[in-house]
Amino acid sequence: MSNTAVRHSARVQAAAPGTQQRRRYHHGDLPRALIDAALTLTLKQGPGSYTLTDLCRVVGVSATAPYRHFESLDQVLAEGAREGFVQLDEKIAGSFRGADWQAQLASCLGDYLVFIRTNPARAMIMFQTRAQTVAEPHFNPTLPLDLPAPRNATEAAVYGCWRAGFATFARYAEVLARALADSPLAPAMAPQPRALETALALYTIMHGVAAQWLQRALPDDWLDRDGHKAFEMIVLPWALGMAAQLSPPGPRTQPQVSLALKKTTDAATSDSDSGLASPTRRPARRRGREAR
User: Fold this and answer.
1) Count of CB atoms situated within 10 Å of the CB of 282
2) Residues 73, 94: contact at Cβ < 8 Å?
3) Distance between CA 167 and CA 219 in Å, rounded?
4) Between 220 and which of 87, 118, 260, 278 could a Cys-Cys bridge form, CB atoms 3.0 to 4.6 Å apart?
5) Contacts with 144 (C-beta within 8 Å, 6 or more apart), sequence order
6) For 264, how many CA atoms within 13 A lie in the half-sphere containing its CB?
């Protein structure tokens, strides 16, 4: 073959999309591509419905290519979940905005639900996917996380994901304590053990709303307008009831909805175009025989 033909063959090979793609992965793009493929399949098929080979098929690489970076599917998912907790931590750091404690609680719930709604696949990996090769303990976010030394890369990734989740909860509890310091709920935020229990109670309520929506068991309007309906129907009654329970002995005055929150709610209600557009929802798949 002539030198001209050799040079032409090299140029054609370099221009081939598959060749360029594989070369980029070799230089570090494959981990990102595999995590993105996991997000895609999670949203399309649901968590726990695919293998590492399926991710390779989506990305367009051989079944052995991922092992340069990941030793298991659990490691891929753990890294994807860890990224999600980091993003959620950044979101929570800016939460609890408003003129009073009720408005700040509303902003906290709104930020959390906006994160879930705009990152449904990420949320499914974070909260609905269990590691298949690492034993998962029964977590208690109010206690320190005590984990053994990892024995392999998968355990290191999974433990890192769990630590990121605990760090996110700790951030949320810290910001919540500051937001409620001058509110009727302040007695529920001291001492520290009780503050963590109160934070866990509120987090459980918020996450319950999110989990129901992810399972397609809650209408979209519960997450519209930054979750105002969920706040008014669930979080606010809980907060007002706890505030009344914590009030000093003597004639009790039922806490009222704050003016700042009422203005925020009225403004959101009057603006029919506000909030996030409802994402395309796949119809729930029928399971078993149809009801007769």
Assistant:
1) 11
2) no
3) 31
4) 278
5) none
6) 25
